[in-house]
Amino acid sequence: MIQVVEHVPQERPYAIGAELAAAGLPVRVCRVWAGDAVPRTTDGMVALVVMGGPMSAYAEPPARGEPSAPGEPPAHGLSPGPGHFPSRADELALLRAALEAEVPVLGVCLGAQLLAVAAGGVARPGSGPQIGWGEVAMTEAARDDPLFAAVPDRLRVLHWHGDTMDLPPGATLLASCDRYPVQAFRIGGSAWGVQFHLEVDGTAVEAFAGAFPEEAATAPGLLESAPAELAALARHRDDVFERFAAFVAGRAERTATRAFFTRRAAAWEERFADDNPRYAAAVRRMGLRPGQRVLDLGCGTGRALPALRAEVGAGGVVAGVDLTPAMLTAAVREGRDRDGGLLAADACRLPLPSGAVHGVFSAGLLDHVPDPAAALREWARVTAPGGVLLLFHPSGRAERAARHGPLDPADPLAEENLRPALRAAGWDPLRYEDARHHFLARAVRAGGRDSGRRPD
Asked: Is 199 one of the catalytic residues?
C-alpha cells in the first residue's frame, strides 16, 4: 500500500496518483485537513508520498492557548498560519521511520521541506514568494538518478512556494534555479523531494489559483499560459512519476519486509532470547567442519552466528545477511559482529560468486520470500557441491498455525512441497522434521560426496 498524506484538498497527487494507478499500486490517503490521523508506523507501506500545503515545515505548533507568532511567513502566503500545523511532529516521525526502513518517499513542496527536516536538514523562510511558470536546471547528478535521468537539462515547471530549505549532509541535489537553489533532491537511494509542482495538470492549476487567488494574481498569465506550459511539461512529468511507480513496484516485497522488521528490531533479541539454545542445537546438525565458509541468510540479530563460528573455528568464514539494516544494528549491539561479518543485502540476490560457501543456514525466511523456488536456486548457486543447507524455525508448522491461522496447503515448508522444490533447485533433501517445538530440513548441494544419500 502507498500512503499519501494531503494537507489541503486542493493539493492532491494529480499526475502522481495517475501513474500509481496505472501501475496497479493501491493507495491510501491520509487527509490531515479533514482530521485524519497520521499513521504512526510504516507497517504495510511500500511507499510514502507527502504533498504540499500552506503550512511551514519549520514551524512548531504553539502551546495550548498561545497564539501564533505575528508576522511569521507561511509557505504559500495564504495560510492558516504556521501555528496551525498540528500534524507536523507526527509527519516528521513517519518520514524518519520511512527513511530508516528505506521505504521509498516522494515529498512535494511542503512535503519536500518536511523530508529535508526529517533527514537532518533545515527548512526556513525564503526571500519571498516564487509563483508561476519558470525554469529549473538539472544538475549533473540528475543524469544518473532513477527518476530524473531522462529529464532535459532545463525544464519549465510551476513554482508555488515562499519557504526553502538547506539540505542535510549527504543529500544529492538534482535540480536548481538562481533564486531558490534547492528545487529537487534525493536522500539516500530511495527518497526524493521536489520543491516545484511537477505533479500538476490543468485541474491542479485551476484548483491552486482558486484556493490562493491573491498569490495567483502575482503571476500574470498563470491560467492563460497553463495549456501550453502543461503540454510541454506532460511528457517529462509523466516519465518521472512512471519511474517512481516502477521503482516502488519493483521493490515492494523488500520494502514491506524492511518496514515490518525495522520497527521491531530494537526489541527482537529480548523478545525471542529463549530460542537461542535451539538455534545452537540446529547449527550443530549442519555437520560443518573447521575452516569452512557459511552464511546465515535472514540472520536478524545474528542469534546463529556464535554457534556457526564455533563450528567452523577461527579459520572459517561466517557471514550474516539481512535485508533490514536495523536488524544488523541490533546484531552489533549484541556483539554478534565479533562472530561473523554482517551484510545488508537481499538474500535472494546474493553479491557472491558461484560455489563461494560450504553451508547455508536460514531460520524462518523461506516462507516469507516472494519466490521460494528462486531463493532455493540462488542459495544453491552460491553453495559448493556437497555443501549443506539447513532450514530452521524454533516452532513447528502446527504450533505457528495455532498462533497465526490454519496451515496453507501451498506452504513452501510443507514436506510435499519442499522436497520437490529442493530437488528442482539442485539440492538433495536428506532430513525433514516438523516437530512441535522446531522445524528443520537438511539438504546437500547435488554433486558432492554426501549427495545421493537416501532421505531419512
From this structure: yes
